[in-house]
Write a structure and sequence with these properties.
With 387 residues, the chain is of the alpha+beta class. Helices cover 51% and strands 14% of the residues. It has a 4-stranded mixed β-sheet with strand order 1-4-5-8. Residues 126-220 form the Acyl-CoA oxidase/dehydrogenase middle domain.
C-alpha cells in the first residue's frame, strides 16, 4: 500500500504542465491584452502551439497526432487559459470539432480530416446551436436532403467558435424531421465548400480574440461519405462529444481562475496601506483562502472527470461520465466567476481598469458558465444522471 499516486497526476503530466506554462508565458501572455483590446485572432498563440504540437494534442498517434490522454489535454488548455482564455480555445475547440469524427466517423473520414488537424494545417469547429435552438439543440432547423451520392445542406448555425478561421466544421442537420433527435445526422463541411459563408464577428463581453460568428449553409452540396456515422445518429454523437468536451471548458475555467489568483496573490504582497502589505490583513487572507479552496476543489473534480473521460475512450464503460462532465464544467465555471470577481475586488480600483489583467479574466470567465450548455442545463443533466 506504499504506492499512493491515486490523486496525483503522473510525472509526465507535471512535465507537460511545466513545458506548456513556460511556452504560454513566453509566447502567448505578451499578446493577451492586445488580442483582447483589438478583438483579433491570437495568431501568435496558434503559431506557438502548432510549432510545439500543442494545438490538437488529443488526435491519436495513428493519424499523426500526439495521442495525448484526456488529462494531458486538460492541462494544456488550463495552462494556456491561465494567460489568455481566447488562445485556450484553439486546443479546446479543435477537440470539440473533431471528436465526433473520432467517436463515430469512418476510417476514411478520420484519415482525411484528422491528419491535417494534427499537422496544424487546419482547425476544426463545431456547429450545433442555431438562432432558435440553443439549450433545445434537438429543435434545430438546419436540413440535409439526400441527392444521389450527395447531401445538400441548408440552414444557419449560431455561436460558432473560431468560425471563419477553421477549415473544417462538424455540422448537425435534420435528415428526418419526423424523428426529432433521432432524425439528426452529423456531417463534415469544409470552409471552401460552395455555399458556405460567415456572419460578422459577434461583439462580445469576453474571449474577444476567439471569433464567434454565424455559419450560413446555402445549398451546400457535399459527398455522402462526409456523413459522420450512420444517418440519424448525429444527435447521439453530439451529446457523447459534450460529455467529453465539457471537461475542457472546466479546464479553461481552471486556467482563468488560476491566472487571477496568481496575480491577486502577488499584488496583495506588494500593495501597502496603513503602513503594511494588504496581504497582512485577515480579511484579505480569508478571501485568498476561499479562492484557493474553491480552485483546488474545482481542479480535483475536473481531473477526476478527465480520468473518467479517458477510461471511457479506452472502452471502460460509461463511468458516470455524463454526470462528472457536467459537474466539472458547472462547478469549475461557477468557481472561476467567483474567483475572478474576488480578484478584481482585491485590486480595488486598479482591478477595474484595463491596465491590469483581472477585469479581462473576469469578463472571460463569464462565458464558461454559458457555452457547451448553460450551468442551469448542467444541473438538469446532473439530476438526470445522479451516480
Amino acid at each position: 500500500m506504499n504506492d499512493f499516486d491515486l490523486y496525483r497526476p503522473s510525472e509526465e503530466h507535471d512535465m507537460l504542465r511545466d513545458a506548456v506554462r513556460s511556452l504560454a508565458e513566453a509566447k502567448i501572455a505578451p499578446y493577451a491584452a492586445e488580442v483582447d483590446e483589438e478583438a483579433r485572432f491570437p495568431q501568435e498563440a496558434l503559431d506557438a502551439l502548432v510549432a510545439n504540437d500543442l494545438h490538437a494534442v488529443h488526435v491519436p498517434e495513428s493519424y499523426g497526432g500526439s495521442g495525448a490522454d484526456a488529462l494531458a489535454t486538460v492541462i494544456v488548455i488550463e495552462e494556456v487559459a491561465r494567460v489568455c482564455a481566447s488562445s485556450s480555445l484553439i486546443p479546446a475547440v479543435n477537440k470539440l470539432g473533431s471528436l465526433p469524427v473520432i467517436l463515430s466517423g469512418s476510417e476514411e473520414l478520420k484519415k482525411k480530416y484528422l491528419a491535417p488537424l494534427a499537422k496544424g494545417d487546419a482547425m476544426f469547429s463545431y456547429c450545433l446551436s442555431e438562432p432558435d435552438a440553443g439549450s433545445d439543440a434537438a429543435g434545430m432547423k438546419t436540413k440535409a436532403v439526400r441527392d444521389g451520392d450527395f447531401w445538400v445542406l441548408n440552414g444557419v448555425k449560431r455561436w460558432i467558435t473560431n468560425a471563419g478561421v477553421s477549415e473544417y466544421y462538424t455540422v448537425m442537420a435534420v435528415t428526418d424531421p419526423e424523428k426529432r433527435s433521432k432524425g439528426i445526422s452529423a456531417f463534415v463541411v469544409e470552409k471552401s465548400d460552395p455555399g458556405v459563408s460567415f456572419g460578422a464577428p459577434e461583439k462580445k463581453l469576453g474571449i474577444k480574440g476567439s471569433p464567434t460568428r454565424e455559419v450560413y449553409l446555402d445549398n451546400v452540396r457535399i459527398p455522402a461519405d462526409r456523413m459522420i456515422g450512420a444517418e440519424g445518429t448525429g444527435f447521439a454523437t453530439a451529446m457523447k462529444t459534450l460529455d467529453h468536451t465539457r471537461i475542457t471548458i472546466a479546464a479553461q475555467a481552471l486556467g482563468i481562475a488560476q491566472g487571477a489568483l496568481d496575480y491577486a496573490k502577488g499584488y496583495v504582497q506588494e500593495r501597502k496601506q496603513f503602513g503594511k502589505p494588504i496581504g497582512d490583513f485577515q480579511g484579505v487572507q480569508f478571501m485568498l483562502a476561499d479562492m484557493a479552496m474553491k480552485l483546488e476543489a474545482a481542479r480535483q473534480l475536473t481531473y477526476a472527470a478527465a480520468a473518467r473521460s479517458e477510461r471511457v475512450s479506452l472502452g471502460g464503460g460509461k463511468e458516470d461520465l455524463t454526470f462528472f462532465g457536467a459537474a466539472a464544467k458547472c462547478y469549475a465555471s461557477d468557481a472561476a466567476m467567483e474567483i475572478t470577481t474576488d480578484a478584481v475586488q482585491l485590486l480595488g480600483g486598479y482591478g477595474y481598469t484595463r491596465d491590469y489583467p483581472l477585469e479581462r479574466m473576469m469578463r472571460d470567465a463569464k462565458i464558461t458558465q454559458i457555452y457547451e450548455g448553460t450551468n442551469q442545463v448542467q444541473r438538469i443533466v446532473m439530476a438526470r444522471n445522479l451516480p
